[in-house]
Design a protein that fits this description.
heterodimer; A: 268 residues; mainly alpha; 13 helices; 76% helix; globular; B: 297 residues; alpha/beta; six-stranded mixed β-sheet; 11 helices
Chain lengths: 268, 297
């Protein structure tokens, strides 16, 4: 190495502006999202179980074991389908955020990115898009399985509404995962996510009707509200107003993100 | 703060629980300056850099980067960073890592150019996780440079590098300063500071205990320790010219001095029965520890 090679490492004229032009800001967001996707594709160990499990469990329970009941009763078929949809989209959102953010915090990657001029929103948005992509694949596989094997009948409009609900419904669970990831260590995050995830799935009545004593508690869980929205989208009479459910889920998303961001920006 | 000062800590205090990390630290980095921050482990070097990068907030005092709070993205867009413990995504390739960082800056360098100039073009397509420790440091240096920063923060940049790689890094850094960049680097090695730095700041227990040119600081830490078995009293020897400290324990008399030859001659003259004379140079870590204790007490 000689002096001439190192001379051109700096610009001839010093960079005067430290603002990021809009075009470059968009590029920063896209680049972050692109590499997040590339990472996921190159390490399919996380993706495959989360993409495969919902459809496998749906086929096992709603087709093999309870296929007869679903054929006899459209309500049962829709109950199965929506329950497994919620289960499917919530998992990668919570685990993807919880585990990855915790690991990247613990290993110093997030710290480096905070020291670099990375817009924090680009980091989060890349991960949200990842969760939405997972949700889209899961919803597509479940809708295909439901319509072909699960005795499910949906109009085109209902298919579109159910798919949208499932995909966008992942967002508040990204926020829940983020909140856990902002506090947990890389090693403890899966345990903490499970601690919330498993009781939440069961206590919100996704898979079986809850006993009366637990029914009153169900609305305390965000999954319950997403399930009601999915049922309503599939044309089933659901509990409460759609707008209430949307408001609850949006509230969870905003509140949990703000609390988590406060910590991430100050402590990392 | 004036316009020649790019980064500044003033009166900064920071504690973690009951541990004091920084205790009223003042530090200024000027334009075109390569400042080495030296000190033993736990002296507060990494904390000082973290505050200048907005990774942490001071409990008291202020941190400024280009006159702004370091949390401002706009301030950090003019800075490049190499951290001590950063495990980057192992799945991403070297070129992709540098490209990602380039996307954060308003007018970055061409990614392939940077790889070429930091001598890692041959690694461009290798997954980061498959690199050796030294290669990873070189990639991190490329990431620190790609945004065309006016100031670079390098936390222990040459740890784990072999001699040749270290020389390459040093010459890159010198070239950058020649071009008008400022660099703050933390290091354990006085020789690294000697090879590069215009100015050295020595931290100990969270305070600035010495600051100046490398030779100033070297003089501060170049002490020698004389040990011997003698009947002379420690108090008597402590009063001799050139003796900084004298104490006695079961191994004999210990004398700290910067004039070992003179003191040894006088010791031998004063006590003909003196035995087991030993003179050794205090190591850097010891010297820092000693400096730190003196200044802090």
């Amino acid at each position: 190495m000689n002096a001439t090679t190192s001379t051109s490492l700096l610009s001839a004229e010093p960079v005067r502006s430290s603002e990021l032009p809009a075009r470059r800001l968009v590029r920063a967001y896209l680049t972050e999202a692109r590499y997040e996707t590339v990472r996921m594709l190159r390490a399919p160990g996380f993706a495959l179980p989360f993409l495969g499990m919902p459809i496998l469990l749906y086929l096992l329970f709603a087709v093999l074991i309870a296929g007869e009941a679903a054929r006899a009763d459209q309500l049962t078929a829709k109950f199965f389908f929506t329950g497994f949809s919620v289960f499917g989209v919530v998992g990668p959102a919570m685990f993807g955020f919880g585990m990855n953010v915790a690991a990247e915090r613990t290993q110093g990657l997030l710290q480096l990115k905070r020291a670099l001029p990375m817009p924090m929103a680009a980091y989060l948005l890349a991960k949200v898009l990842m969760a939405l992509l997972f949700a889209a694949i899961i919803m597509a596989s479940l809708i295909a399985a439901g319509l072909s094997l699960g005795h499910l009948t949906l109009t085109t409009g209902q298919i579109a509404r159910v798919a949208t609900t499932g995909i966008l419904g992942a967002v508040p669970f990204c926020a829940m995962g983020l909140l856990i990831g902002a506090w947990a260590t890389g090693r403890s995050a899966p345990a903490f996510v499970n601690l919330v995830y498993i009781p939440m799935l069961h206590l919100s009545g996704l898979f079986y009707p809850l006993p009366k004593s637990l029914q009153a508690m169900a609305p305390a869980w965000p999954t319950f509200h997403l399930h009601q929205l999915a049922l309503s989208a599939a044309g089933v009479d659901s509990w409460g107003e759609d707008l209430t459910h949307v408001a609850v889920l949006a509230g969870v998303a905003v509140l949990f993100t703000l609390i988590a961001l406060r910590r991430l920006e100050r402590v990392g | 703060m004036n316009d020649t000062c790019l980064a500044e800590l003033s009166g900064v205090h920071k504690r973690y629980g009951s541990t004091v990390a920084l205790d009223g630290l003042d530090l200024e980095v000027g334009r075109r300056e390569l400042m080495a921050v030296l000190g033993p482990n736990g002296a507060g070097k990494t904390t000082a850099i973290s505050l200048l990068l907005g990774l942490q907030q001071p409990d008291a005092g202020t941190a400024r980067l280009f006159g702004r709070p370091p949390k401002d993205l706009a301030a950090r867009r003019r800075a490049g960073v190499m951290m001590q413990e950063a495990s980057l995504a192992p799945e991403l390739r070297v070129r992709e890592q540098v490209d990602l960082v380039a996307s954060y800056y308003p007018a970055p360098l061409d990614v392939d150019d940077v790889l070429e100039k930091t001598h890692i073009a041959a690694l461009a397509k290798r997954p980061y996780g498959k690199l050796s420790g030294g290669q990873k440091r070189q990639v991190q240096l490329a990431m620190a440079l790609v945004g065309r920063p006016q100031i670079l923060f390098l936390d222990e940049p040459t740890v784990g590098l072999d001699l040749q790689a270290r020389e390459l890094v040093w010459s890159t850094l010198r070239g950058l300063v020649d071009q008008g960049a400022s660099i703050v680097l933390t290091t354990h090695y006085l020789e690294e500071a000697e090879a590069l730095a215009d100015r050295v700041a020595v931290l100990g227990k969270g305070r600035l205990i010495a600051s100046g040119s490398v030779s100033d600081v070297r003089a501060l830490v170049e002490r020698q320790q004389i040990t011997c078995l003698t009947s002379l009293a420690a108090e008597e020897v402590a009063a001799w010219p050139g003796v900084e400290e004298a104490s006695r324990d079961q191994r004999g008399l210990h004398v700290t001095t910067r004039q070992a030859e003179d003191v040894a001659r006088r010791l031998l003259a004063a006590d003909p029965g003196l035995t087991r004379l030993e003179v050794r140079r205090a190591g850097l870590a010891e010297a820092f520890a000693e400096l730190t204790q003196e200044k802090a007490s």
